[in-house]
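We now fix the convention by which a protein and its fold are recorded. The integers have meaning only within a learned vocabulary of local backbone shapes. The record below shows the convention in full.
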Amino acid sequence: MSKASMSATIALAVGSLFIAGCATKNYVKQTITPVDQKIDQVDQASQKRDSQQVADLTKTNQQVDDNEKKLSATTEIARTADTESKSATAKANQNTRDISDLRNVVANIDDYKATSEPTVVHFKFNQDTLSEPEKAKLDQLASQVGSMQRYFITIEGFTDQTGTRAYNDQLSQKRADQVISYLVGSHDIPVYRIHTVGLGEQKLIDEGKGKKAREQSRRVEIIIYTAKPLSTSGAGGN
């Protein structure tokens, strides 16, 4: 073979290889590209599915938390209702006993005697507010009824003669109400055991003559009445 022929043959072979290589690259590219696209689609779908699953799980956890809170609230409401029910029952039973005691007081009113002289609390001009020294007097009075079983308390409010009679009647009742509020609120004395009246400018001290007399007239008088305990053995006596 001549040198020229050999060169041509070599050139043809190299050209064929180049052409074949280009064809192979194009084939590979055409084959891989759809695969890559499919992988991207699968990856996106997977990410979307994972995101949805995370969102669903978060929603489920939130619903569980909400349900637990509702259950706790329902349990607390039930517990509170049960406590209130028991409290109401106890209160009803206490009211029944209180009414029974009050009936005994009314039925045996003549058996009750004053335990001592009236406790007197005073008020400033045109006021119905209890001062600390006057509260201390009421504290002392309340301590006396702790062990009593058959008793009631009378509270009478008064004013001096300054002002109209109608206004003084109202002011004297307000003063008496302040005493009731303190005895009931601070010492748990049953309100049914208290009898009150506002007498205005009636029963003035020294007829209200002079500043000192007017100061003494601005008052509330409290008296405790008590009776001997009922005898269980004498229930059917003469």
Summary: The first strand starts at residue 113 and ends at 114. The chain has two domains: 9-107, 112-230.
